[in-house]
Each structure stands twice: as structure tokens, then as C-alpha cells.
Amino acid sequence: MWSDLRNRELGDIHPILFSNAIRKRRFCNLTISNYKEIVSPHNGGVNSLRIDLIENRYLLSGASDGSVSTFDTQYTTDYEGGGLIGKHKPLFVIDRHCGGHKYAVSSVSWYPVDTGLFVTGSYDHYVKVWDTNSTKVVVDFKMPGKVYGSSMSSIATTHMLIAAGSSDIQVRLCDIASGAFTHTLTGHRDGIMAVEWSASNEWVVMTGGCDSAIRFWDIRRPGCFRILDRVQSLPGRRPPIYERAINEKGVTIAEDIKNRTKNRRAVLIRDSSGKQLYPRMALSHNLATAHCGWITTLKATEDGMHLISTGADSKICLWDIESGYNLPVCFESTNLQMEKPLQLAVTPDSSLLFVPSMNCIKAFDMWSGKLMKTFPCHYETTNCCCLNSQDQELYTGSNDRHILVFSPFNATIPEVEDGYKRDMLYSSDQDFWSD
Amino acid sequence: MAAVIVRLIETATNSTEREIDPRLLKAIKSTARSSEDEVCSAVHVLMEKMRKEHSQVRYLALFITDELFMRSKYFRRLFVVDLEQFLALSVGFRRNMPLPPPSFIASLLRSKSIELLEKWNIAFGIHYRQLRLGLDYLKNTLKFQFPNRLENEARLQQERRKREIKTQELLSKKFEDLKENFSSMKSEIRSTLDQLEECLHIVHIGQYRFGQNSFNADDDFNSIEFKSPSLRQIRLDSLKEGAKIHENSENRAVFSAMREFYKILVSKHLESVHNYISTLIKVDNQNNRFRDSALKDFIDIRNCIYAVKKKYEELDFQHDVNDSNEDDLWEEGKIDSQHEPQISSSCSGLNLEFADGWDSSKGKGKVPPGIFISPNRSNNKTANGRCFTVKIKGKTSDVKDLEQNKNKLEPTSIRSKLLVDAPVFDWAPSFYNWGSSKDILANHRGLELDSHWGRVDQDAVIPASKIAELNVHVSTYREPTVEIQPCLVPLKKGGLCPRRDMKACPFHGVIIPRDSNGNPIIEGKTPPNEETTGVSSKPTEDERISVTNYDDMAAKLANQAVKNIRERDNEAKLLKKAKLAKVREHNETVLREAAVTSSTHSECFGNDIPSSYRDRSEPKLKKPTLASMLKKKVTTKDRLVKKLASTRRATEGTTRQLSKAEDDAYKEAYPNQW
User: Which end of chain B is more exposed for a tag (fewer CB within 10 A), N or C?
Assistant: First the structure.
């Protein structure tokens, strides 16, 4: 590590690469944190966890008892065990007794611009927008069915739309500004489990439904413009954007992409004259499926190039967003929950993928699909995980009502002011051989 | 590489005991201590053992885990990673992973693992999040009952502290009380003490005067020589008795006053002094000077009281004992513990002495063992209508009773004579009211019996004659023991046949008296072979035989005739038996054949019996194995259930269709309830 630091000072290593390397190392060393505890106020399984995008500090959680709460991950409210264990109590809890959702909260998300608002979707057919400071509903949208997923675009500058997928076949876009539905995207043949905005294009929204199709929508145009097909797969992967930017000197990213797409088959569905075929796509395309069974999760990587989807066939698929092809990565020993929308987490450099898999969280290498690590700590099935890229921490929620914190392993015990107490604490966990 | 600990754990868990051999455990511990590799493999092996489908193995693995967990940090670090898995296997909280059989060990395993989890959590919970999580999940989500040792202890401690505070409060209150009326109480006690002492003094003066007289008389006795130590003892005792002061008309007033004072002193003052002393010792007060001085005073007072009490008791005790001697001797046990040593010391001399006399008078140096009952008509007067003195071995009071009676009335001669004649009975309930001529109230048992069965005549009486009729003494007839003669026929290998049979030895026929060499002894007769020949072949010789001989001969002939007839009878019987046996055998074979052909079940019937016999003959010394624990024992209940089920099967078949139709209807009507 010290040599890396020196190399960075000398300019041999790009600062971004350096920080990435350290982050990656820390992410690889995640273990359950003994000194940081989140006190879960929920009486049901934790369904959704989000960390805010501005400070990477406030954690929002939604649970199946209809309660929503937030935690400050930096400020410790309570200490226990002689100052050894820091407890993080919720800043506030909204449950069904104080105007919260009636049924399980399926998804939560922060307003991407600041932490003054957050959005929750629930099985009681409502999507609600909350004011964080007053913990009151600002706007609510009545959906035609149970809301499985709701999402806001993290890069949007021109609109304030919530894409919400429900048990209805239409995806609805709810406008916070006006308090009405602006779009209803029709195309899926069954309820929509997963909704995800593109991380590179503010107009593109991706949805996965119970009809096992993943559709891409451009909200400026009618109809979906792409359906992912698991049969069509790309032979290799594109190198990550940073490496490429450095390694292939002289070739800009835009050119590179152009070159690559030129060599491949036509990506978009166009006829010979170049006229776009959607909204009325060919029937063969319209029936394409991404998984065998429901699509339970969609997750776009932070660079906006790849999409990870999980399905009821207990498989994880990796897609190239730009081309719409399936990347042939086989994720080993996945064992996913099928009935519920899950929440995955990807490291910012798209190297590690964290997947809730039954009682544990599994960490996969994105590009080889190799299982790097499992975190078996929960006592019931896990539903969601969320990464804090700033502190390199992982938060996981499960049906056993706990929210666990995984942090990079360090052997040192945190500072306790009292020296004597510290000694005592330290000595209480030593070898004790009587004979 | 680290195969040692693996092997050790393998052997340790392959046992049916509830606990692990301590030597093996020690070996495991020392091996684990030697290197981290061993610890690592121990973790793996233990988890592997926990996955075994056998609760016993899991239980033992849990034990080893606990031992290592409490000791090695490295073990803990490796172990907690898989804690969730471990708990699922040891507590069995997953519905799809129940604990394996045998069930009784499974429940033991569950409770033990819960207990251990709590223990681990108390010891190392701070350092391992997984432990806290596991405990929290089992406790708060699944609502398992934990022993809650820490909380219980805290609660107990708090209770104890509360109690202490309360007692301290009480003590300080008492102390304050004491402070207030210390002087008055002291003076009161002092005055009582003084009065009592004065009384004693008066009495002692009297004693001295009285005592001189008696000692004058003593000299006269001394002139006569008593050789026997026992008699001497008696004399000394009587002298001592004479030296004691007795209450008489002169000093009655003094005595009564003394007794009163004594009572006050012992019952009131002594107790309060004791109380205050203990209070002063226990109380925690800043006023130490007063406390010390008060304590000193109290101890002084107590000593004074004791001294006076002793003096008084020396005096008064004689009086008491004399009284009790005259009344009823059974009450002796009720006398205060303080009196007791003196009584026993004074009585022991008597006892010994009278016991000697008793023995010599009986003529036998032994008292019959067990319960001995003697009709006591001779000394009815002293025994207050008690008709028996029941003497139980080792009970000195009884001995004394007898002896004293003897002493007063000198019944030695009559008694001993009667005792020699007296029959010895076993104890029976009829002796409870032997000889009593009282009527007995029928409905007198201290219970109100009116309520349910109507009026009860409280005065109903069972007449004594009826009681006597009901209480007839039962005695069982005991057969006099008869010695069975041995057969004593000389054997081929030498020696005599030692068999003892009543009439006939199965090997040597009828038992007849024989001499030490085994030759039959026939009273005054020649050996049997001569006799038989004489009867049949030489009738002429008979005439020559004398008259006496002739009689003998006749008897012999008669015997022979009887014998012959018996033999013939026996033969006929044997023949008959043989015939019957043949018939039976035939019947059996026929039956067996029929059975074998009729059903397949009965085939194994024949085979069954010999095999079971074989089993029985083999000694069952097989060690219980783990597999044998899994086998379910077939109890009588199971067998009955099986049998009932098989008989029911036929009826079930018919009812099934009916019930199925019913089920379908139900399912359609209430689809959600299935």
C-alpha cells in the first residue's frame, strides 16, 4: 500500500486508480462490524435500504410492517459494552400508526438532489413522497395495484419523475412537481417487479416484469425501444471505462464505442431504410425473454454501461446496456429468493456484486462470476443490501428484522478513552487455558 | 497435518455416554493449545459432527465446542463465522432442519445449547456481533426461554441488598430503644438477680445446717463394711440424695419466691439480654463508645445470670427429678436440655447397677432380643393400670422402669419365675388394648361427619366384649423343621449320594436308612438277597423257624406282596403314559402340518421359538452403540396399536370412500381453510 502511495505521489499511478485500488481492497475485506450496530425499529423484515446520494451518510430503510426509518451512519447515538459498541438509533420511524403505509413497504429511495425528500412504494397501492424534516407526506400517488418497485433517476436534471412498477401491467411515471401521472408505459404483459433508471441517460428507464421481459423505454417516445433477449449474447466484455481511458491513449471513448458497435451486428431494431421499428416491434422481438420466470431485480452499474438482472430462475444475468446483449458470465451457486423484489449492490468500479441469497449475502466478481465471499450472519432470508461507497460499508436487511453493518476488517479495537477500561476489555477476549 | 485433534474428536463423539471422558477432553484441549492449525481443523470437524444425523453426536460435539470456545480466542474467531449454522443444528430452530433422533437427547441438546449461548454471550458478547445477533434472534424473534442467569443474579443481589438495608434499619431502631431504657432495664435485672441470690443464700444456710446432721449419720454407716461396689454405689447415691435440700413446710415460701424469680430471669431477662447483645454486635453505628460500654455491661449481666441460674439449678433440679420419678417416667424426655446431663449422669449409675441385678436374677446373662412382653400383674399398682411394659432393646427408660418397680416391691423372685414361664409372642395390634375393659366410642374421631350421611350418633359405643371379640390374637402355625435325610447310596466314583429327597431319590429309588458306608440298615434283619430266596425256594425251612422268626417272616412276606403289587401298578401306569404320549405326538405333527400348509405366517412360527431360545441362552453383553440409540424400542403400547390398526384396516377401507366424498365437499365449500 505504501509503495502505491509513493507511486501516486510520483505520478506513476493515476489518482483515481489508486483510490479505486484502495476501495476495492477494503470492499474485499468486508466483515461483520462488531463496533457498529444499527438498532432496527422494524417489526417486520427489512425490504429495502438506500443510502443517500449526496453525503453517503443517511440510510433509509423500509420494512414489511409498513414502517420506514432513517439512520445516521456516521453519528453514534449510543454506546454499549464500555464504549466499545456504537449503536445507531433511528432518527425517526414512520409506521402505520403515524400516517405511514398500511402494508409492507417494498421500495424506498432518496430524492437524488438532496435529502429533504424521499419516496416510498408500498403494497397498499400507494407511492408516497415524504418530507424528511417534517416526516409528512408531500405527495402521494394511488397506483392500480401493489407497488413492487419505485425509482428516481439519479442523473435527471430536467424532470422529477418517479417510475413505479406495480402489479398492474403498466409502468407509471409520477411527477412530483405536478402530483400526477405523466406517462403510462404499456407493453408488459404482467405486473412489473423491477424499475431502474439508466445511469447514463436521464430519459431511459428500464423495467422488468413478471412476464420475464426486460424492456427499455425512452420516455420521450411512445413504446419500448428494446427488449432484452437472453439468447443474444456478446462474446466478450468491454473493459471498464477508466482502464480504457488510460490504456488506449489517443482513442477517445466515444470513438472506441463507435468502433466497437460498427463491428457488431445491428444493435437497434431498424429496417434497411433506417426507420425505427418500435412502437410496433416485430412479434418475434416482442416475445423475447430475459429470464425463465419473473424478473425480480434490475440494477444498473454506476458507469451506466451494464445492467444486472435477477430472475425467478435463480440466475443473475449481466447485460450490456448499449447493445442490449447478454454478457456470458456465469455466476456460480446463486440461490435467490423468487417471490420478492430484491435489492442488489454493485461497487462503484463495477468489480464486485453483492447479492442477497437466502440467509447470506454473496459477493461475486462481476466479470468472472466467481463467488468471492459469503456473509452468513442473518437468521432468515435476506432481502436487500446497500453499499456506502464513501465508507466502504455494506448494509444488509433481512426478514429477521435486523439491519447489519459490514465494514472493512481491522484488527484494532476502537479508541476507548479510559485506558484501564480498554485494557480490561481487551483482556476479556484472550486465550484462557486452564491446563 | 492436524489429524490428531480430528481423531481425538472422532473418538470423543463416538460414545453413548452423556459426558466426555475427562482424559480425552484434556487431550483435546492440550492438542488444540499446541497449534492454531489444530484449532482450525477442530472447528471444521466439530461443524461436521454437528451435521451428523444423531443428537448424541451433536451433544458431545457441543460439549467440546464449549470447552474450546471458552479457552481459545482463535477458536472463537473461526467459530462465530458459522454460528448461525451451528445454532440451526444445535437448537433446531429451522422448521426444515429439526433435531435428529433420539428425541430425549435432542431436547437435552436444545436446552444445553441455549444455555451455552447465553453463557458465551455473557463472557464474550461484546467482542462478537454474531453471538449477540444469535442470542437476540432466539430470544426476541423466536421467543426461546433463556435461563437468564445474569438477570437472575442481579435480581437476587438486589433483593439481598434490600433485605440488608431493612434489617439494618430495624437494628438501629432497636438500638435507639435500648439507649433510651438501658439504665432502667439494667436496674430491673439487677434487682431480680439480687433477690434470687438472697433466696439462694437463705436456702443454702438451711442446707448447711441440715447437711451436718446427715453427715453424722453417715459415719455410722461407714463403720459397716460394704464389699459389693454396687451396693456401695447405692449407698453413696442415697447419701447424696439425703444431702440435697428438700422443700418442706419451713422453706416453702422461699422456694416459691425463688422459683418465680428464676422464671422471670430465664424467660424474660435472659432472653432480652441475648437479644440486645446480638443487636449491639450487628448494629453499625457511629456511637461506638456507648455501644462498647453497653455490650460490656450486658455480657457481665449475662454471666451473672448464668452463674445464678446454675446455682439455682443445682438446688432445684433435685426437686424436679423427685417429682417426675413419682409421676410418670415417660415424661423424662421433656425436661429441659440444661437438666439433661445431670439426670443422665445420676441415672447411669442406677441403670448399671440394676441391670446387673436383673441379669443375675434371671439366671441367664441375656435379655431376649426384639420385643419382649411380660404380663405384669404382680406390680399393677405401680404401673398405673398399664398391663404391659414393652421392652425395646436399648431403651434405658424402660429398663429403669422395670428396675425401679423391682426395687420397690422386690418382685425379683416372682417376676423371674413368671418370666420363665411366660410365652413369647410376636407383636400384634390386639395387644394395644389387651386386658382393657373399657367401651370405645364408635364415632369419636374428631371429625364432623354429620353433613353427608345424615345424623351420626356421637355417643355410640362399641362394647368391650365386642372389641375383645374383634381383637382375637392371631398366631400363625409354624411347621417344625424336619431334617431330610440324604440318600447315601454308595456311588461308583466313591462317596455317598448327597441328594436329599423326601421319599425317593430319582437315581437310587426309595430312601432307606443307611450306615456310614452306605449299607442299608434294616432293624434286626439279614440282607435282602437272602430273604427273597428264602421266601420262594425253601418252604420247608419255614417250618423249622421258630415262632418269633415266623412272625417276622409273615411281615416280610406281606411287605413283599405289597411291593409286587405296586410294581405291577407302576408298570401299567408307565405303559399308559407311553401310549398317551404317542397319541399326543401324532396329534402335534398333524396340527403342525396343517398349520404350515395353511398360511405363510405360521412358517416362521416354528423357526421363531428356537431362535428366541438361542437369544436367551446368549448372554447380552453387547455395548450400546450410537446406532442402537436410534432404534426405536417397540413397547407393548406400540404392539397393541399395530394390532388395533390391522383389525381396523378392513373397516377403514369402507369408510375411506365415504370420508373422501365428505372431504371433497368440504374443500369446495371452504377452499381457503386447506
Answer: C
